[in-house]
Automatic annotation (TrEMBL), chains A, B:
This is Transcriptional regulator, IclR family. Transmembrane segments: none annotated. SUPFAM superfamilies: GAF domain-like (SSF55781), Winged helix' DNA-binding domain (SSF46785). The keyword Lyase does not apply. Residues 88-273 form the IclR-ED domain. One of its GO terms (molecular function) is DNA-binding transcription factor activity. The keyword Cell wall biogenesis/degradation does not apply. It comes from the Bacteria. One of its GO terms (biological process) is negative regulation of DNA-templated transcription.
Length: 276, 276
DNA sequence: AGAATTGTCCCACTATTTGGCACCAAACAA
DNA sequence: TTGTTTGGTGCCAAATAGTGGGACAATTCT
């Protein structure tokens, strides 16, 4: 901060818009300014004057940072034309995408979700036509679910699976549905709705951003699920909240939906996703 | 610099080696250190001790920067586990990919290429089954080529086109070849080799990283071309050097190949590409 | 339980960054 | 062309922002 602790109220008033909200007393002004500069360029401001204005830094300081960032490849410079995000950022972005450990990232979020709902929370990914359970937090209602991390399940009969399907082209839905529902339904076992109805459901789920499972995978168990996306806006995982029917009346599911979706989006953001 | 005034001449000598070449970067130590830190994490070093060691910064300083970077989303922190590249980097990486103006980036490189070869240089991208000429630098040999920026040409009969095809799955080659070579060859007009031979050629081009055009598009004109890739390792453009046959004997083409390829790779690097 | 690593403070010192200014080069407008 | 604006580069005295040592608590490993 430019402001000294001895400054008068009048001066403080004049400081106004410059650095508005964030007065986080960190000890890395130059670094933070540099990062702000990057984001400024990302926002499309490529001229020195505009950047200096946006950051509230004088021309010389701005130029100093700009040339350092260019030298390091974080910005690309077209003399007398402007600045653009540089190749290094692309590389780091790719690396970031690779080294992201989904489970560790998601853990705090699903823990929070488990905490507020009291139900069992799952995290899963798609792996050749099936759901693969990556993580699970048992509910606090005493009842235990059969699911285990490392387990596999059909896509079309589980909440997680349906959430994962929301990210696929609708053309693939039917094949996956067929995969889950063999020609001869095992007597007495639950199963998803027949194709036309199923398609209708998925279409609705896409619109609302979360999916339901009404005892289709296991009798007496209902769940609500939502897809997790990465920086490329691809669905890479899904989160679900599951519980026994008595704890999961229809109206609670509709309340839970947006909450699960919000959790999924929070994870997505940690994966580099940004809202459309 | 971190070095105290008490350092010996010997240490000074080692310091010079350490950051030799970068005599320029002054006035932004904190920023540069922060960026170095990012690259350190990108390199897979996620523990505080390792990072501090790699950067040569004391623990307290390292931690200070780390927490700032985490606060800004450039790093992701899993307490007592380590640091990873953060979501912000993914976002910036995506933005960088978008806002990259291929032509402006490539210009200096193809100018250099035109300069050293004296021939006409082209830059082009693929656009639904055709080459689209984005930029052209006329040769200095007096002869003028018909090509114009903004023009479209078949993929399979041009050097640029073949270079672009090198990045496609071989399964698509035949269709594109057929698209270029209609059933009835227009009498007297040049055309690419027939399919089996053509396929053989492309396979060889893939291996060597650059392609040739032997008067297949225009009689009397030969060219050498190489593909340009972006940060995702996808072929997004191609560069070619073209000239009249007398200036393009076979042996010159083999000399030119690696040069054109090098230029294409230089552009690729500016687009965030890194060697395999 | 002990050892090793990490997260979090604090604080005096000074090296690092600041920002004003001045000059030149390019770009743009007329 | 000329005049005007914006961009690139360098210098330098001033002081702020950053440094790094150290002490302590929390956490994980073994």
């Amino acid at each position: 901060m430019v402001v000294k602790q001895t400054m008068s109220a009048a001066m403080a008033a004049m400081e106004q818009e410059a650095d508005a909200g964030k007065t986080q007393g960190t000890g890395t002004q130059t670094l933070l300014r540099g990062l702000a500069l990057l984001e400024c360029v990302a926002a499309g401001i490529g001229d020195v004057k505009g950047i200096a204005a946006r950051l509230g830094t004088p021309r010389s300081t701005t130029n100093r940072m700009l040339s350092s960032l260019v030298a390091e490849g974080y910005l690309h410079h077209i003399p007398y034309k402007g600045y653009l995000l540089g190749p290094k950022l692309i590389q780091l972005g790719m690396k970031a995408l690779e080294q992201r450990p989904l489970v560790a990232i998601a853990r705090p979020h699903i823990e929070a979700l488990a905490e507020t709902t009291g139900d069992t929370v799952h995290l899963g990914v798609e792996e050749n036509g099936e759901v693969f359970y990556l993580d699970k937090i048992p509910g606090t209602r005493g009842l235990e679910m059969r699911s285990r991390t490392g387990q596999r399940m059909p896509l079309a009969s589980t909440g997680l699976g349906k959430a994962l399907m929301l990210g696929m082209p609708p053309a693939r839905w039917q094949a996956l549905h067929a995969l889950t529902c063999p020609a001869e339904p095992p007597a007495g076992r639950p199963r998803p709705a027949d194709w036309p109805v199923f398609q209708e459901q998925l279409t609705r789920y896409v619109a609302q951003g979360w999916a339901m499972d009404l005892e289709e995978n296991e009798l007496g168990i209902r769940c609500v699920a939502a897809p997790v996306r990465d920086g490329r806006n691809l669905v890479v995982a899904a989160v679900s909240v599951a519980s026994a029917v008595p704890y999961m009346p229809e109206d609670r599911m509709t309340t839970l939906g947006p909450l699960v979706r919000a959790t999924a989006e929070a994870i997505s953001k940690d994966l580099g996703w940004t809202a459309p």
